[in-house]
Amino acid sequence: MPQFLTTSEPSFETAFTALLGLKREDAPDVDDAVAAIIADVRARGDAAVIELTAKFDRLDLTSATLAFTAAEIEAECAKVSPEDRAALELAADRIRAYHARQLPEDACWQDEHGATLGWRWTPVSAAGLYVPGGLASYPSSVLMNAVPARVAGVERLVICCPTPGGVVNPLVLLAARIAGVDTIYRIGGAQAIAALAYGTETIAPVDKITGPGNAYVAAAKRRVFGRVGIDMIAGPSEILVIADADNDPDWIALDLLSQAEHDESAQSILITDDATFGRAVAAAVDKRLETLERRAIAGASWLNNGAIIITQDLEEAARLSNRIAPEHLELCVADPDALATRITHAGAIFLGSWTPEAIGDYVGGPNHVLPTARSARFSSGLSVMDFVKRTTLAKMTPGALAAIGPAAERLAISESLQAHGLSVRARLDRLNGGAE
Amino acid sequence: MPQFLTTSEPSFETAFTALLGLKREDAPDVDDAVAAIIADVRARGDAAVIELTAKFDRLDLTSATLAFTAAEIEAECAKVSPEDRAALELAADRIRAYHARQLPEDACWQDEHGATLGWRWTPVSAAGLYVPGGLASYPSSVLMNAVPARVAGVERLVICCPTPGGVVNPLVLLAARIAGVDTIYRIGGAQAIAALAYGTETIAPVDKITGPGNAYVAAAKRRVFGRVGIDMIAGPSEILVIADADNDPDWIALDLLSQAEHDESAQSILITDDATFGRAVAAAVDKRLETLERRAIAGASWLNNGAIIITQDLEEAARLSNRIAPEHLELCVADPDALATRITHAGAIFLGSWTPEAIGDYVGGPNHVLPTARSARFSSGLSVMDFVKRTTLAKMTPGALAAIGPAAERLAISESLQAHGLSVRARLDRLNGGAE
């Protein structure tokens, strides 16, 4: 049984603060190793990538075999069952439809002086998606990263996915094909991130890198940030369920376990206004853990990082939720829409008991790449916006410059930036006939 | 005279690539020092901030004097001339009007199965703006950071601005008051960033930190990223002017110098389709440099980092511009709107010869915090979007879950995430009457 906290107890605030600050992950310090790998790929390109892949993935490649061929992809995709294929296509369609609504609009207007102002959005030219190999090789993540990039209009979209020992996940290749990925490289780790950021003889550099990865991948993304754009550095996954007593404890238990089974460092928290219900959920979790395939992982996560919190009412639950700023928030209450209006920080909200979080992982439509570790206080999940950028536009007329130019000149002088002021003054003088 | 390149020459590609890769800044490695400062502030709070301020800013503070009082702010603001005040207010009004249009819209719709989907935007609760002290203490930057935060609806907005030796810039305080900043702390450096990120006894932590700073501030922002959100790590400023021969060389020279005067590592590039005009601009720059107050800085920047590039036509100029992905781009050509449609990567575009870039620094309306060092390939200038975040929403009905749940279950099983699948299956079974 994990922590069982009650807000009315005097010790609550201390225990809750400790829960907020709980360090769930001990990231190994791989920064020096990663720096060396990046330097090696920059210096030696393909040769370095090939050597590192042989070393870490026990896979012998050449420049010609870094990428899957169309025939290889076709052969792997053919292994996927029609049912799995249909499920992937349904997911892709729904993710595409949701993200298509995120395309931001250009703007252009004239102000009262006749100046034209506005902005324009353009897609990133090339994006690289990292897809982990092995156990954490999730086709759903391919869709969640690649579909928004395609919707944004990214021209060149590539994937790096290691295939340790040559083992390929056909569903990953099929997901990439469904999402419209151009090229799939069978490389991974910091060497893949370096190749994407700096390019090699075979791999053209990209402008933006997204996708999850292990400590090496995360450290490499941090290092190449600035050279290219990156998405967030994701931490372990987490869920917060706010549930009233009018729920099936087993449903809620499964929702909590669906995060816990990801990873021992995942976190599942239940907040309820009914202590009896809270205990019933704890019992249901224990019962499900008896037979769950990943019970070792899920059990450790639940025991070490999980919590059940009993509040006076749902209003208090919402306040605690805002302090947690959860990645995933389920509102299993009678009026979830009303409670949602009290939520100020959350990556994704799942409204009502008929919306298990797993729907959002696969087929809901919203993205499943979401801000972890309380970063929903200041950041958002992955979206089309991550693959576009805005150029602001301004166009003065002589009249507009005459109206607002003097203020710019004055501020420039106040900041001791004379040339700034003169660049305005020279034009104003022309208007006044002074410099002709 | 800086580099003078002509695209028709065989050596051009090599020279242009070198220009793109030019390393203009030698950032000192202050990372260890910054790590120690952050650890100290986390451990000792106010006491550490006060000691570090005494050491670096030669200023003795107490917890009670970390922030300016209302009376102090009032007294400083009273020193500002009515003309400067009016210019700041005009700038603030225009920046506010521009950024108000950036407020993103919530969305909510029903799909064909009756599921409700959408998203909601909420402001960051608390933001901290860093404002450098001394020479680079720009009131315009206060407006450019604080106004978008206020427009976004940020509840608590604070500034950290060091006052070395106690010297205060009244315009900075006035800009902060005009922008609606709540509290101004007279602290700076890595200790200010640490205080904003982790909080002290006196300074409540914030969720997002923006604003420029020296190497210590930049390193500290990198380190606290994740704990809080940050804006970009800005590099030295740069301008690209594309101009045809139908321009006053002196205007273009002043526009180039208005970037060059910022900093020796700033970069100013002219691209023109007329070599004679290019030489005329070079001569005009030299002439203006003779009398410019900051001629030492501007001259060094122009000589070391500047360039004049002669192209066959404006179409080629646009292509080169897209490879540069400039922070500021002036299009001083007959039809700037047409040429702008060829531009795919730029932080801000200034259309036509009547729009000197300096207008955008102060009173145009768009933000002057823009992506440097070619990062306009993948990122945007500061905006209201930096102070809001999106929560995605999904609400299934039993019917919607019946329609799409089986696909989620299948994908969960394919990813060996059994509890994910079961959380859907338990509900589907209820619908089928199986589990009642």
From TrEMBL, chains A, B:
Keywords assigned by UniProt, alphabetized: Amino-acid biosynthesis, Histidine biosynthesis, Metal-binding, NAD, Oxidoreductase, Zinc
Leading EC class: oxidoreductase
EC number: 1.1.1.23
GO MF annotation list: histidinol dehydrogenase activity; NAD binding; zinc ion binding
One Gene Ontology biological process: L-histidine biosynthetic process
CC cofactor note: Binds 1 zinc ion per subunit.
InterPro entries: Ald_DH/histidinol_DH (IPR016161), Histidinol_DH_CS (IPR001692), Histidinol_DH_monofunct (IPR022695), Hstdl_DH (IPR012131)
Entry protein name: Histidinol dehydrogenase
